[in-house]
């Protein structure tokens, strides 16, 4: 990990709201993080906790209305992303910053062939000729493990399997050698052998090109294998942030602990029933005035219901947003 | 399934083929076929969960869709509840729909963006059941509770939900008609582990309560281990191994199953990936499968015969089957 270098992407105090007929949804609240070149930042968290909305907000990808980024400083290589024009943003997206969306079927256009969707960014961003772009497109498809790549450029998305569509998305995101790759659940539709292949590919690109990667996933096995640092999100906030080993060995947020306990395994005794975290996810109808996890937390006490904990440092590089202190088994003072 | 007595077969698939034509050129002439599912035979017993795993693109979704007759199969037979349905059409097919349902892999693509979540879940009820609006409404809310969706969201539209929440809309909808048989195509891939556990527990509860039968397609081998009674492993359009769950995980027989199980990432940053079998070699295409065994281009244990002859489907005893030349004289 290239320590000490400047962050390539730096996000401070991001807040995104949806204004719907039924009122506001405070999907992302005071989210701050940064990532350096060559680093892999894993993002985990409850379904609906704001992982995708955070990343879409960064690149101005959310339709407004209903979405509004109400606050936040977003810097790419020191440049203020929120001050950029739509044209500048378009240049950044798909050029310097590659994006793999969570839902391949909606982000691939069903009326264009896969080849066209791969060739377009190559022509726009890298100014390749039509021919050079098709050659490169076939290479990219082969790189993500699609058999008969050159022949399949003329196929439409619905002719591909779920996992193949996901790999097409990865190929599109990687097309222009991005400096930052934001991958939202990029391997959910892949079997473990192809997932292993994609992970190797990403590791390789990271080393060769110093690509910075944000990898959102529910698969803690993947996180354990590839991440340098991990963000844990809950209820629109970052509740814990730590180097990967530290997170697995010494989790400090009750949500993180509960999450790690729910992982099913392929080895060892088979549980009769899977463990889940009881209770409902928080309502995001207003800006949080208390800890979003309090209602489900075994350690919650009065303060947690009256105040939203800020992130505090536990050890170098490890912070947690929680009033409980596992080290002392009591409330944290301060 | 109780031991001793013969469990009843609810689904009997034999020799199922699903080939897609490939057209090219301005005249859209057929230039080949994608053999997405190529001669697949298996049974599913009433009340069991058959796990279906295998490489991305090997034909799992296509098999699931063909069995539910969302496609017209190229050939083969599909018997559900004693009735041959492979070539049913029109009204006869429509009448069967309520008993068999599918939870789709791509939640977004299977939900109508212009309908509220409440009406999406109510749609199958409207289509197949005469119900008072009040009862229908109550049933929708009950289903939302069952899958852990907040009732207050019934009037929202699919795009207002996160990926995992959308998947649960699809599950609620599939459950609406109290089906007997459900094909679950990657029903939990988009969910966090806690909600995965909730959904899997829910599927198990429903199975126990209503005697449901599942075909559970998934890449998550630890979930399949938890949920499935037996597991079928597919590779390039064919089933290569079928075995009771514990036997398969403890002692995989087919080299592809061995590679698959070895590649599961371990949720421990200090574990060194041990003995992970990396598959090299060309990934073959279903348009042009290799001669001999479909796995021969990547198999770490490939022999000469594998490039010549298609391996037979061997009965290994104790409910285990596999197709591999290595197992032939054993
Ligand atoms: N267009 C929208 N209108 C209203 N609310 C929305 C909209 N899009 C997302 N939300 C809400 O914002 C919250 C965060 O959603 P997001 O998609 O970021 O979750 P996520 O962490 O990515 O979850 P998952 O793991 O399920 O993908 C969710 O509660 C969701 O319901
Ligand atoms: N409508 C179609 N037309 C042409 N080819 C198709 C069509 N649907 C699927 N295929 C092809 O059939 C093969 C099997 O696809 P299928 O979707 O069944 O795979 P899968 O096992 O479900 O994969 P995944 O795990 O990635 O979802 C793939 O090669 C795919 O490209
Ligand atoms: Mg998401
Ligand atoms: Mg599929």
Tell me about this structure:
The complex is a heterodimer of chains A (334) and B (330). With 334 residues, chain A is of the alpha/beta class. Chain A has two domains: 9-96 and 179-194 and 210-331, P-loop containing nucleotide triphosphate hydrolases (Rossmann fold, 3-Layer(aba) Sandwich), CATH 3.40.50; 105-175, no CATH class. Chain A is built from twelve helices and 14 strands. Chain A is globular and about 65 Å long. The two termini of chain A are 32 Å apart. Chain B is built from ten helices and twelve strands. An eight-stranded mixed β-sheet of chain B has the order 6-7-8-3-9-10-12-11, with helices on both faces. A four-stranded antiparallel β-sheet of chain B has the order 2-1-4-5. In chain B, α4 crosses α5 (133-146). Chain B starts with 8 loop residues before the first strand and ends in an 8-residue tail after the last strand. At the A-B interface, α3, α7, α8, α9 and α10 of A face α3, α6, α7, α8 and α10 of B. One adenosine-5'-triphosphate sits between chains A (18, 20, 25, 27, 45, 47-53, 66, 102, 284) and B (159-165, 192).
Fourth-level CATH superfamily of the largest domain in chain A: P-loop containing nucleotide triphosphate hydrolases
Question: What string gives the helices and strands of chain B in order?
Answer: EEEHEEHEHHHHEHEHEEHHEE
**Amino- and carboxy-terminal Cα gap of chain B:** 30 Å
Share in β-strands of chain A: 15-25%
Biggest interface, chains and residue tallies: A-B, 67 and 71 residues
- CATH fold-level label of the largest domain in chain A: Rossmann fold
Oligomer: heterodimer
How many beta-strand segments of chain A?
Answer: 14
- Give the H and E element order of chain A: EEEHEEHEHHHHHEHEHEEHHHEEEE
Q: Helix content range of the residues of chain B, please? A: 25-40%
Poorly predicted tracts of residues of chain B: none
Shape summary of chain B:
globular
Tally of DSSP β-strands of chain B:
12
Count of discrete structural domains of chain A: 2
Q: Count of helical segments of chain A?
A: 12
SS class of chain B: alpha/beta
**Could you say which overall geometry of chain A the principal axes of the C-alpha atoms support?**
globular
How many strands, which pairing sense, and closed or not: the largest β-sheet of chain A? 8 strands, mixed
> Would you state the CATH class of the largest domain in chain A?
Alpha Beta
Bound molecules: adenosine-5'-triphosphate, magnesium ion
């Amino acid at each position: 990990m290239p320590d000490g270098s400047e962050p390539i992407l730096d996000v401070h105090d991001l807040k995104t709201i949806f204004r719907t007929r039924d009122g506001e949804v405070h999907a992302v609240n005071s989210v701050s993080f940064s990532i350096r070149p060559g680093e892999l930042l894993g993002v985990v968290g409850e379904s609906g906790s704001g992982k995708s909305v955070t990343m879409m907000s960064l690149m101005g990808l959310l339709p407004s209305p209903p979405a509004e980024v109400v606050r936040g400083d977003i810097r790419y290589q020191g440049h203020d992303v929120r001050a950029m024009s739509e044209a500048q943003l378009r240049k950044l997206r798909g050029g310097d910053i590659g994006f793999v969306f969570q839902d391949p079927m909606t982000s691939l256009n069903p009326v264009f062939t896969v080849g066209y969707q791969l060739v377009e960014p190559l022509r726009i961003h890298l100014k390749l000729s039509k021919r050079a772009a098709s050659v490169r497109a076939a290479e990219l498809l082969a790189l993500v493990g699609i058999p008969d790549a050159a022949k399949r450029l003329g196929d439409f998305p619905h002719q591909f399997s779920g996992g193949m569509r996901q790999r097409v998305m990865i190929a599109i995101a990687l097309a222009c050698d991005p400096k930052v790759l934001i991958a939202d659940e990029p391997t959910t539709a892949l079997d473990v052998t192809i997932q292993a292949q994609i992970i190797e590919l990403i590791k390789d690109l990271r080393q060769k090109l110093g690509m910075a990667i944000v990898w959102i996933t529910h698969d803690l096995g993947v996180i354990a294998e590839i991440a340098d640092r991990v963000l844990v999100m809950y209820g629109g906030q970052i509740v814990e942030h730590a180097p990967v080993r530290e997170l697995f060995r010494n989790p400090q947020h009750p949500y993180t602990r509960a999450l790690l306990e729910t992982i099913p395994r392929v080895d060892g005794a088979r549980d009769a029933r899977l463990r889940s975290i009881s209770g409902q996810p928080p309502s995001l109808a207003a800006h949080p005035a208390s800890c979003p996890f309090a209602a489900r937390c075994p350690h919650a006490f009065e303060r947690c219901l009256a105040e939203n904990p800020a992130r505090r440092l536990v050890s170098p590089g490890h912070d947690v947003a929680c009033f409980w202190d596992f080290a002392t088994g009591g409330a944290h003072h301060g | 399934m109780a031991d001793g007595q013969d469990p009843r077969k609810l689904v009997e698939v034999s020799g199922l083929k699903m080939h897609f034509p490939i057209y090219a050129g301005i005249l859209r002439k057929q230039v080949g076929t994608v053999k997405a599912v190529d001669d697949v035979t298996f049974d599913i017993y009433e009340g069991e969960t058959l796990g279906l795993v295998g490489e991305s693109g090997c034909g799992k979704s296509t098999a699931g869709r063909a069995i539910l007759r969302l496609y017209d199969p190229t050939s083969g037979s599909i018997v559900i509840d004693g009735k041959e349905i492979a070539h049913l059409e029109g009204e006869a097919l429509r009448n069967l729909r309520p008993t068999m349902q599918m939870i789709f892999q791509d939640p977004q693509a299977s939900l109508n963006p212009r309908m509220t979540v409440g009406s999406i879940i109510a749609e199958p009820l409207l289509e197949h059941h005469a119900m008072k609006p009040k009862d229908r409404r109550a049933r929708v809310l009950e289903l939302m509770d069952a899958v852990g969706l907040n009732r207050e969201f019934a009037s929202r539209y699919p795009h207002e939900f996160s990926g995992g929440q959308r998947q649960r809309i699809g599950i609620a909808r599939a459950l609406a008609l109290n089906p007997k048989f459900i094909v679950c195509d990657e029903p939990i891939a988009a969910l966090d582990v806690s909600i995965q556990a909730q959904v899997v527990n829910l599927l198990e509860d429903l199975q126990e309560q209503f005697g449901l039968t599942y075909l559970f397609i998934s890449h998550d081998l630890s979930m399949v281990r938890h949920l499935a009674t037996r597991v079928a492993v597919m590779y390039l359009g064919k089933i290569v191994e079928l075995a009771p769950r514990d036997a398969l995980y403890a002692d995989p027989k087919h080299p592809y199953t061995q590679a698959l199980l070895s590649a599961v990432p371990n949720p421990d940053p200090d574990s060194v990936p041990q003995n992970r079998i990396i598959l090299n070699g060309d990934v073959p295409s279903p348009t042009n499968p290799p001669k001999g065994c479909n796995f021969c281009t990547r198999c770490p244990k490939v022999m000469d015969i594998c490039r010549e002859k298609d391996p037979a489907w061997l009965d290994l005893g104790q409910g285990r089957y596999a197709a591999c030349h290595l197992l032939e004289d054993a």
